[in-house]
Specification:
Helices cover about 30% and strands about 10% of the residues. It has a three-stranded antiparallel β-sheet with strand order 3-4-5, with no helix packed on it. Strands 1-2 form a two-stranded antiparallel ribbon. Helix 4 runs parallel beside helix 5. The chain has a domain of about 80 residues: Vaccinia Virus protein VP39 (Rossmann fold). With about 210 residues, the chain is an alpha+beta fold. It contains five helices and seven strands; from the N terminus they run ββαβββααβαβα. The radius of gyration is 19 Å and the shape is globular. Strand 6, helix 4 and strand 7 form a beta-alpha-beta unit.
Length: about 210
């Protein structure tokens, strides 16, 4: 897979690496494929459509090798790790994944219109003593897609989630009277999403739809 960005940005080739999305050896190897994914989103987006993204961030930390580093999930700093270039980050550096993806998409032609704060008034406490606590949810709250869908699509419109996961976007879209398309590679997640959407919307009627 080769990502050739606009003039001034470095070409990224990741064909020699195979692995799980989010476990790439470098942040650049994550950002490049994201640009390709969202080019496909652009292709099917209506002219008046809106893209809203929710990305978590990562930190750089030292491994047992003093000459190497890794970037880790801030919610699980002691679990696994994603190695990154030693000349790019200092230990404890915030990698800035959401910004890197946003700027890469902007360079690829998207309009970057706003950043939206996910306010977490009561997050799970972290063990870190040298930076503010940050929380992350693998399955995000329904309130997040609920707000995004109401703001970005009309009644009866269609919602696309290129990372369908457990189907939260589908559940909310159906509750709000929108059509939805979820894209997911993992068979267990596909089955989970199908069952969840059916279960959580089984008792719906027209009076429960939002506007």
């Amino acid at each position: 897979m080769t990502y050739t960005p606009m003039a001034g940005l470095t070409q990224i080739t990741v064909s020699a690496w195979t692995g799980c999305l989010g476990l790439e050896p470098t942040p650049e190897m994550f950002v490049g494929p994201m640009v390709l994914v969202f080019r496909e989103v652009w292709r099917v987006l209506r002219g008046d459509g809106t893209l809203l993204m929710n990305f978590g961030d990562s930190y750089a930390s030292r491994t047992s090798n003093k000459n190497d580093e890794k970037w880790t999930d801030p919610a699980n700093p002691n679990k696994g790790g994603r190695r990154c270039r030693t000349d790019a980050f200092k230990p404890k550096d915030l990698i800035g994944i959401p910004w890197r993806v946003a700027f890469a998409l902007q360079a690829d032609g998207w309009y970057l219109r706003s950043d939206i704060i996910w306010n977490k008034p009561n997050p799970m406490p972290g063990s870190m003593a040298d930076r503010p606590t940050k929380a992350h949810f693998a399955t995000f709250l329904e309130k997040i897609p609920w707000t995004c869908i109401l703001a970005g699509s009309p009644q009866g419109g269609k919602v696309l989630d290129p990372f369908g996961g457990s189907g939260t976007t589908g559940v909310v879209a159906k509750k709000l009277g929108r059509k939805y398309v979820l894209v997911e590679m993992g068979s267990p997640y596909i089955q989970l999403a199908e069952k969840r959407i059916k279960r959580e919307t089984a008792q719906m009627n027209i009076f429960e739809f939002g506007t």
